[in-house]
Amino acid sequence: MTDEPLLRVRGLTKHFPVRQGLRATGLVRAVDGLDFDVRPGETLGLVGESGCGKTTTGRMLVRLLEPTSGSIEFDGRDITHAGRRELRPLRQELQIIFQDPYASLNPRHTVGRIVAMPLQVNGIKPPGGIKARVQELLELVGLNPEHYNRYPHEFSGGQRQRIGIARALALRPKLIVADEPVSALDVSIQAQVVNLLRNLQRELGLAFVFIAHDLAVIRHFSQRVAVMYLGRIVEIGDRADIYERPQHPYTRALLSAIPDVTQLGPAGRIRLTGDVPTPLDPPSGCRFRTRCWKAQDICATEEPALVPRDGGRQATACHFPEVAAPIFEEVPS
Amino acid sequence: MDSSEPSPSGDPDDRPAVPAQRSDQDAYLRVHDLRVRFDTEDGVVRAVDGVSFAVERGRTLGIVGESGSGKSVTSLAILGLHDPKRTTITGEISVGGRQVVGLPDEEVRRLRGRDMAMIFQDPLSALHPYYTVGRQIAEAYRVHHPKANRREARQRAVDMLDRVGIPQPARRFDQYPHEFSGGMRQRAMIAMSLVNDPALLIADEPTTALDVTVQAQILDLLADLQAEFHSAIILITHDLGVVGQVADDVLVMYGGRAVERGSVEQVLRAPQHPYTWGLLSSVPSLHGDADADLLPIPGNPPSLINLPPGCAFHPRCRYADRAGSRSRTEVPELRAAGADGHLVACHLSAEERAAFYAEDVASVGVAR
Q1: ipTM of the modeled complex
Q2: What is the pLDDT of chain A when averaged over all its residues?
Q3: Helical H runs in chain B?
Q4: For residue B2, is it within any domain?
Q5: What would the pLDDT profile of B240-283 be if each residue is shown by its tens digit?
Q6: B37 and B174 housed in the same domain
Q7: Domain of B183, in residue numbers
Q8: Do A269 and B216 touch (CB under 8 A)?
Q9: For a designed S-S bond to A13, which of A69, A127, A206, B260 qualifies (C-beta 3.0 to 4.6 A apart)?
Q10: Is residue B10 part of a domain?
Q11: Is residue B207's pLDDT more than 80?
Q12: B62 and B205 assigned to the same domain
């Protein structure tokens, strides 16, 4: 692992215009100035609640959405506004896995055709032939290579997600953006897919941007974690920083809101009131201030910058970060 | 469709009855040997196959299971919401002493909403988009209080909106569902369910569609309301964390049958069924070793049309071979599993289960 990032994102922004008739009447600030790096072989977990912009971010990274401003550098190349032709070689190295294993596979194509598609589109002729490569991929993701000629409806949700993973791996990418890859699956199947992705990461040295709303899943998958709120990163750090020494009040609230199997009965949790405000009209200053119990006057007037504390790799966008005790003092056993 | 009918255990109706819980007699809801079957073109679906449980007022039963486990079908049967033309329901469902199975539609309707109510997963599809939220709540009240006039019903609805934590309830009364956020809609639906003070509340995945911070608010609200109205609650969920937080008792379902039942401490702290072990060790936790692999349950949940013979879980069970051929030929009964009231349907002996659990599950440190 070198220190040179594989993916370098600076000021990434996506605003969607809201139109009434022909007039633009507002802007949905879905993503508003993100900075982060992903190094080769590393997984960055992007976590947040609905409307925080995590999915929009993932789609911009693989250029399914055009960023409004900011830059995306992949492997040293600026790809922010790369055209179709320039994107083609890039698509080989940068792949996405979708949340919905039902909607993301063409029901009229066989599994073999689905997985072979990226190879054919890019005119790649693997040494042993396309079929052999596809069967190798199916085996890699734990599917029976003999099911090459079956259709998606013959597979369960977990198996379909494996097909989507095989397709993403077909071009030997360096980075995979996985957008909620397990949240549509049954609990017992989620663990299968999480383990599969972890093994692939280890064996193939893949880098991941792993997008999920589930902090526990993110914890099992990511070395770095970025917590998003209303289009902004409020805290980013190594896994241990985020889960053991979270400094942003939102991160702490999020962690304490998760019902954990290891704790029975109502726990002494931080309770946020209200809902996430609309990204059409985000609060001034710190966007979290309307739900934050520590908010002061400065929070309404001045937007806190995402600044690293104690020169480390953990950065928090908060005027009053929690630097006191770790959140979980003891692990119940 | 006779070919799909024979069960390897012989006629399933001959199976011995499930042992009764001590509290069964005075429980508000008693379900005994409930069976729900659907006739479909592909064969008979035994969606629920001999399930028994009881819920007292003031207590919460968590029903846990994956898709196709029969947990939602059970709750719809209690509410009498299955289409009688396509569904065969047998067994007993007693709500406040009245038998629901076989009761004429008209009488079930009188119970529904007043004595028992349901909170659905998706409030947007449970609320009518064309009517204001308040009007729908007021109407639910007037159905069971025909003497109440409009003003009284409105006042009652505003009080309920206030009670479930909706700010400015009088103004919100006149808004439409699309003007509410997801969490607010779920609160409005809870207000509608509770408007007639039902003694039994069935919540089917009430927080699955919500964000965690909002989920925490809703779970707190349900607990507060239960303390206030002393209602019996059934919480249907796939999330063991939610169960651990709010349930008193837990029923684990698999393939339409109960595989484990007991208090929340018994089922989550000293689980007895290999399926429960699998669920616990496949859920990522905020504690424990983040680098350890999860222990998934191999395979997929079974199809209810073609349920595996014997123990429905055996094709996915690591220990099926240890129970010999019985696991493939004989449906295990739900029987006492040591501690008081703790029941498990497994062919393994108590000693075997204790040994496997200690060796394989507890040692991994994922399930605790």
Answers
A1: 0.81
A2: 88
A3: 71-78, 105-111, 123-126, 133-144, 150-163, 169-172, 182-194, 212-229, 240-246, 264-269, 274-282, 326-329, 350-356
A4: no
A5: 989 999 999 999 999 999 999 999 999 999 999 999 999 988 88
A6: no
A7: 126-197
A8: yes
A9: A69
A10: no
A11: yes
A12: yes
- The residue from B197, B225, B260 where one domain ends is B197
Tell me if A304 sits within 8 A of A295, measured CB to CB.
no
Q: How far is B11 from chain A (nearest CA, A)?
A: 30
Give domain status of residue B16, yes or no: no
Please give the residue of chain B at the shortest CA–CA distance from A243: B286
Give me the pLDDT at residue B76, please: 92
User: Do B248 and B323 fall within a single domain?
Assistant: yes
pLDDT by residue (tens digit) across A65-87? 999 999 999 998 899 988 888 88
From chain B, pick out residues whose CB is under 8 angstroms from the CB of A186.
66-67, 238, 301
- For residues B106 and B226, membership in a common domain is answered with yes
* Count of structural domains within chain B: 2
Q: Which of B197, B219, B251 is where one domain is finished?
A: B197
When scoring B72, B181, B243, B245 by the number of chain A Cβ atoms within 10 A, the one with the most, hence best to mutate, is: B245
Place of tokens 């069964």: B24
Residue in B219, B268, B316 nearest the CB of A261: B268
What is the topology classification, in CATH, of domain A7-316? Rossmann fold (3.40.50)
Residue-wise burial string across A303-329, b where 16 or more C-beta atoms lie within 10 A, e elsewhere: bbebeebeeeebbbbbbbbbeeeebee
User: Of the candidates A186, A189, A328, which has its C-beta nearest B287's C-beta?
Assistant: A328
Which of A7-11, A92-96, B43-47, B280-284 has the highest mean predicted lDDT (pLDDT)? A7-11
One-letter amino acid of B334: L
